[in-house]
Amino acid sequence: MRERTTPLPGTPLSDGAVHRGEALTQTWPSSLRYAWDTGVAIGRFLSELKNGRIIGRRCERCERVLVPPRMFCEQCFRPTDAWQLVKDSGTINTYSESYIRWDVSRIAEPILIAVIEIDGASSGGFLHYLGEVKPEDLRIGMKVKAAWKLPEQREGSILDIRYFRPFGSAQDRPA
Amino acid sequence: MGSIEHVERVTDLRAWPGDFPVSHLYTMGIAGERFFRELMDAGRFVGTRCAACEHVYLPPSLFCPRCFAALDEWKEVGPQGVVRAVTTAHRGVDGGPLKAPQTLALIQLDGADDLLVHRIQKADSVSIGDRVEAVLKEAAKRRGSILDVRFFRPA
Amino acid sequence: MRKVAVVGAGLTRFMRRAQETGPELAWLAARQALESCGMTLNDVDSVALGSAPDAFDGVHMKGEYLSPGAGGWGRPVIRPYAGGGTGVLMPVHAWFHVASGLSDVCLVVAEEKMSSCHPHPQGAFLTIFDNILERPLGPNLIWIFALEMRRYMETYGITKEEIARVSVKNKRNGLDHPSTHVAQEITVQDVLDSEVMVAPVNRLDISPASDGAAAIVMVAEEVARRVTDKPVWIKGIGWNLDTAYWTNRDLAYPAYVERAARMAYEMAGITEPRKQINIVEPYDPFSYKELHHLEGLLLADKGEAPKITADGVTQRNGNMPVCPSGGLLGVGNPIAAAGLMKVAEIFWQLRGEAGARQVPGQPKIGLAQAWGDLMQVGTVAVMGID
Lengths: 175, 155, 386
What we know:
Largest interface: A-C, 59 and 63 residues
Strand content of chain A: 35-45%
Distance between the termini of chain A: 73 Å
Largest sheet of chain C: 9 strands, mixed
Oligomer: heterotrimer
Number of domains of chain A: 1
CATH architecture of chain C: 3-Layer(aba) Sandwich
Strand order of the largest sheet of chain A: 10-9-8-11-12
Strand order of the largest sheet of chain C: 3-2-4-8-1-9-12-11-10
Largest sheet of chain A: 5 strands, antiparallel
Structural class of chain A: mainly beta
Structural class of chain C: alpha/beta
């Protein structure tokens, strides 16, 4: 643009101005609710979580075991061939400590999260919490294991796993 | 062999529930701000006119969508107008039955080229071509909303 | 295919909240773009309009809603959508319109009004995560960036200080941009001291959500020669989408940006990008992203972008200025408009019209890149002046 002496158009409105009603506003609540079909692959994945197990799907052509499972291989573009149970342990691929919730409200104690490469899956795995570990002790490459809810508490949900914790924490030691 | 959903027991079907947990706060816009303030404070309707296109926009627009001109000619329109289309609704937004049928119309306020949608009440029957007039809330109750207009009724 | 040029551009201010409605913002930018090259809406025969998720504005069919303000009345309108990648995806679509001969003048408009979304625009991003396997964890969008940033840092041994230099550079560059609402003079220490959001991301590593609009005019060669003596040609375009299974990918390197860049370089006849690209506007919603994207664009070796930043190569007076506009960090982030703002910046820079932001040396070839979705899409435009 040529050097401007007049400011660009646009009328900024501060939060204060909105609260004081200096500009008219209208609020609209959201009332959208959904019931998503899980599909074959995730349906089975969730059922197996209820059983305390993690399951993937295998593509024979590229020989990958996919977690989360899908009924098609997106690289070979063909149906996947077989179910394959994988371990409930894995390796931290990357991790973080969050001081905010989904709506950006702050929390004092961070939520610990990681992408876990699941043992037996070909590449990566899924997002989940970390627990029984201090943020400063976290490392990429750390071995972790799922801490499950008790069988009667499981619903067939990703939250049937409470979090992943490092190998060698209290519950793994023999009684 | 394609993958086909094959479930034998209905109890195995799963649906995962969820929602969209945000709400929205809308500003009225530069033109809309004036429209709603006039309605709220003065109890009148205003539109903007494009001289080149000879068109009066209602609700008013800051710009002419036909020729892109900036519009600064404001014009009072209504409060009476003509019904250009009408219907009666028996079902509500959620698909359930309404307590009482609701008549809705597209109304061309006198002086405007565009149509406003609103409710028609206090009428036994409404036809295209009928003249109607706006009934507003009393001034103290108006908030700068389209609901500051309670309904239109036969003029 | 016909040659296609950018001949005009316009921007609104970028703001935390605009009083204007979306269509009004779109019109303000679109009218300015047309006026800047002496054209009128009558001259326009197609429109490419872009805006990121409808969820921000809370208006369904947002493209149709915005269209009158983008000059779409009674015209063929297309709304390409790729999240944050939209800003450069629209020029890609506009290129098709004009290069094919179907249109001579395409008005390209990007608008974003994120402020409508409550409690916070970021909350709408909850829905970017897998609805069954990830949403129950209550994720915030910043989680993915933090996870990717950590992976990038640890894979190549990059420090937070090295990354913070990008925020410092871009926020300072942004002081010269008339649209800015977030530019400021800061230091690396300021970035490190700012509030930790999701480690290792601090507040000053992030560009804030904004409202705003941008527009450019893209035309066929004979129109370009009539309206200006400095058309900026679209030399190459590229775009590429990676899988949505982001947890199955290597987050240390944006392979999809490389594929998009290669597509654009091949079309533009660029064989040595580091020598031939004079000025770069990569997408910088977070400080580390500028580095990540420079590597994906093959403008730095993997893990080496921090070094060229530290060496001053990417400053305005460096060998390869990066984000001379100030980028998203320095100007603001109204998602789709931010990407198109970068295209507009390359346009002005190549014509020598960037005022206080002008990089020296009369750059001839520039590149704008946007990115979006679930760390998933790269969109690239290579532009050049005769």
